[in-house]
Specification:
The protein is of the alpha+beta class and 193 residues long. It contains five helices and eight strands. The chain has an eight-stranded mixed beta sheet with strand order 1-2-3-4-5-6-7-8, with helices on both faces.
Length: 193
């Protein structure tokens, strides 16, 4: 297995490195067998937002791993990061079917939007599932919320929807919730982007 890594000594180097490393997620019809690319994309979103907020300690080194997905060193701190998708499987099957029918041409697909109530269940299920795994102490969790459900919610509204966290969340020092334009740190209740 090829182990990809990223290293940056300062915010400018990190910004440049993230321009290529994990900058793109595989398309809906191209995801099979490319989970690590999606994991890198999620980590890219986290590091870009944190770099912009000035909360990354340098130097930073990231190495691909398994269980957890990444081993990270920020300054003198070392931790693992496990990435998981929170998805409604029926919705994802419907979206994949629509993408196939439209041949990936990027057509706008009409869909009835809901009020985001499913977000909490999806996120809490993933936290519970991952808390039962035997990850090393200090492993952080990143949840990519992949649903139309919260699309129309602001970051603050989404944060309100998923809190409070289940008690098993105590297992993780940090829990990141990622959407394409939103980054929340759930344990500290912070909106990063």
């Amino acid at each position: 297995m090829h182990v990809a890594s990223l290293h940056a000594r300062n915010p400018g180097e990190l910004f440049c490195a993230l321009g290529a490393w994990g900058a793109r997620a595989p398309g809906r019809l191209d995801q099979r067998g490319r989970q690590k690319e999606l994991d890198r994309w999620v980590l890219n979103k986290i590091l870009l937002a944190r770099n912009g907020a000035g909360t990354v300690a340098f130097p930073v080194t990231v190495r691909d791993s398994e269980a957890p997905d990444f081993n990270i060193r920020e300054g003198e701190t070392r931790y693992g990061l496990e990435v998981v998708e929170a998805v409604d499987h029926d919705e994802q099957a419907w979206r994949t079917k629509q993408a196939r029918e439209h041949d990936g041409r990027g057509y706008s697909i009409p869909r009835k939007f809901t009020n985001g109530n499913r977000s909490r269940g999806l996120v809490h299920d993933r936290i519970r599932m991952k808390s039962e795994k035997g990850y090393p102490d200090g492993t952080h969790l990143a949840i990519y919320l992949r649903s139309y459900d919260p699309m129309l919610l602001s970051a603050g509204e989404l944060l309100d929807r998923v809190l409070p966290l289940p008690s098993c969340a105590e297992r993780f020092p940090e829990i990141w919730l990622v959407r394409p334009s939103i980054l929340l740190e759930l344990k500290s209740r912070q909106i990063i982007a």
